[in-house]
Design a protein that fits this description.
Number of helices: 16
Distance between the termini: 11 Å
Bound molecules: fructose -6-phosphate
CATH architecture of the largest domain: 4-Layer Sandwich
Strand content: 15-25%
CATH topology of the largest domain: Glutamine Phosphoribosylpyrophosphate, subunit 1, domain 1
Number of strands: 25
Strand order of the largest sheet: 3-2-4-1-10-9-11-15
Number of domains: 3
Length: 593
């Protein structure tokens, strides 16, 4: 949530560079944007409500070599130009962008007011440049003043600051991500950003800032230190494998469609895991006393499906808990417990909190993540990458199927059938490639056209298709704003069936499995009340009014069943005139609790 991008170096087009880079972070927040640079030695701030993608980066071409920028997802204060970042000190010499929440901003603001500071916005962020300004009364060293200021902050933050009289960019982190990109060669310099895609065009050499650390760069070198003690820190440079092409939209109209289509390859990449490592992890799960699966939203639905994978494939009981609820389970955690956290971004605040709770009890954490080097990836005891490549659309698609594939592979390994698991999944990956052909996609587009004006849409599933019914509802809601709800098929007659009217569309997720007849019976109950039944299944059944064919994928059925729903959601959004890449009120990577 909120995207930050800063640059310092030998290039003279820092303003254009940060605005361009910020466009690659728009998925982190898009209610307003802002930037600060120093074209003539003093700080100039430009900010506005609306999307950074609508801004012309050439308009910031005045020569300068230091700039910061921000795209906002509002927490404190409404969506106004005034509340957009950067924020300035009273003398206008210090500019700050910030991601996170300053929990003690109330008392800090009151104290600053008594010292004569005036505030123009309703944000928590605005206190930061004023705190730095206060610190600068005691030191001429800008970095030292930033250190003094951020030490006073409670809560989670990523802060990047610049000063009129300093050529240095100063970044500090506690809880919200900040990554340094080192540009080598003739145009030497440093980028600092909330996520890697911001600077992927310029460099793949990264250094991760950890919690409680800060970085200071004048463009020729960079110094890392501990915020609390000031002690210097050394950081490894890491070469990341993502390419700039992977992060581009290419010929697709939206990232969401691009990423759905990428599942032709990404599921196979997820299966490509080190055998020995999977077996070691399976052993850790086998020996654990209490295994928990924890994630948020779509990643949470992958965990819930894995609950069934572990039970059906491996006969192993695990406990799924949404990450935001996990802290209440601390009583069950022991040093012998294992907590499996699942996250695309590797930065979700509730998941990080769950990890903190697990660690406080001495439990071990296995992270299944997409973003290499993310906080969750770095802080876990064991890790598995799903290899989906950058996921830019807010709605998670290829990351989900990658998570499902990796979790199913673990379940097979747990059952002593790793080879079988690999075979099932690789066959599924090949089937997905066949399934996502232009004719199939066109049929789903037509179905979306037909459904686009419906008031309600219900999705039912049983067994491992139940979490996919919940996930289907998330996908439809978040991009098309159609009211969609997912249910376990058997639960309908306990209340929700009262909502079914003549023609109400109901999607039924089915497979060739032991619960097939049950879910078809549930579909029949709905049909008897007038529902229009859309079956997603390997075979056409009599109860279906419309049929979306999917391969028979055994335990990988949830993977193939969710893909047509992703496509349908996409076209529902487009046919209703919504931008599926930027759903209202949302942002990718939820870094606030
Ligand atoms: C929905 C969606 C979210 C995320 C959730 C967790 O399409 O993307 O529900 O799944 O915010 O995010 P990660 O996986 O980054 O922890």
């Amino acid at each position: 949530m909120c995207g930050i991008f800063g640059y310092v170096g030998s290039r003279r087009d820092a303003g254009t560079l940060v605005v361009e880079g910020l466009k690659n972070l728009e998925y982190r927040g898009y209610d307003s944007w802002g930037m600060a640079y120093k074209p003539n030695g003093s700080i100039v701030v430009r900010k506005d409500i609306g999307k950074i993608s609508d801004v012309r980066s050439e308009d910031f071409g005045a020569p300068c070599s230091l700039a910061i920028a921000h795209t906002r997802w509002a927490t404190h204060g409404g969506v106004t130009q005034c509340n957009a970042h950067p924020h300035l000190s009273c003398d206008g010499k210090i500019a700050v962008v910030h991601n996170g929440i300053v929990e003690n901003y109330g008392p800090l603001r009151d104290a600053l007011k008594t010292k004569g500071h005036t505030f123009l916005s309703q944000t928590d962020t605005e206190i930061i440049p004023h705190l730095i300004e206060e610190e600068m009364k005691n030191t001429a060293d800008f970095a030292a003043a930033v250190r003094g200021a951020v030490r006073k902050l409670d809560g989670r933050f990523a802060v990047v600051a610049m000063h009129t009289d300093s050529q240095s960019l100063v970044a500090a982190r506690n809880g919200s991500p900040l990554i340094i990109g080192a540009i080598k060669g003739a145009t030497q310099g440093y980028c600092v950003a909330s996520d890697i895609p911001a600077f992927l065009e310029h460099t793949r050499t990264v250094q991760y800032l950890d919690d409680g650390e800060m970085a200071v760069s004048d463009g020729r070198g960079i110094l890392f230190s501990d915020i609390a003690t000031g002690a210097e820190r050394t950081k490894r440079e890491i070469e990341i494998t993502w390419s700039p092409e992977q992060a581009r939209k290419g010929d697709f109209e939206h990232y969401m469609l691009k990423e759905i289509m990428e599942q032709k390859e990404s599921v196979a990449r997820a299966v490509n895991q080190n055998e020995e490592q999977i077996l070691t992890l399976a052993k850790a799960i086998q020996e654990a006393r209490g295994t928990f699966l924890v994630g948020c939203g779509t990643a949470g639905k992958a965990c819930m499906a894995a609950d069934y994978f572990f039970s059906v494939v491996a006969g192993k009981h695990v406990n799924y808990t949404p990450a935001s609820e996990f802290k209440l389970y601390h009583r069950f955690l022991k040093p012998e417990s294992l907590v499996i956290v699942v996250s695309q971004s590797g930065e979700t605040a509730d998941v990080l909190e769950a990890m903190r709770v697990a660690k406080s009890k001495g439990s071990k954490v296995l992270a299944v993540v997409n973003v290499e080097g993310s906080t969750i990836h770095r802080d876990a005891d064991y890790t598995l990458l799903i290899n989906a490549g950058p996921e830019r659309a807010v709605a998670s698609t290829k990351a989900l199927t990658g998570q499902l594939a990796v979790l199913l592979l673990i379940a097979y390994a747990l059952a002593g059938k790793l080879r079988d698991g690999r075979t099932v999944l690789l066959e599924t990956a090949a089937e997905i490639n066949d399934m996502l052909n232009p004719r199939y996609v066109e049929r789903l587009k037509k179905l979306a056209e037909k459904l686009k004006d419906c008031r309600d849409l219900f999705i039912i599933g049983k067994g491992w298709n139940y979490p996919m019914a919940l996930e289907s509802a998330i996908k439809i809601q978040e991009v098309s704003y159609v009211h969609a709800e997912g249910f376990a098929g058997g639960e309908l007659k306990h209340g929700p069936i009262a909502l079914i009217e003549q023609g109400t569309p109901c999607i039924v997720l089915a497979g060739e499995d032991e619960v097939q007849q049950d879910i078809l019976n549930n579909a029949t109950e709905l049909k008897a009340r007038g529902a229009f039944i859309i079956g997603v299944a390997p075979r056409k059944h009599e109860v279906f009014d419309a049929w979306i064919k999917v391969p028979d994928a055994a335990a990988a059925q949830p993977i193939v069943n969710i893909i047509p729903i992703q496509v349908l959601s996409y076209f529902l959004a487009v046919s209703r005139g919504k931008n599926p890449d930027m759903p209202r009120n949302l942002a990718k990577s939820v870094t606030v609790k």
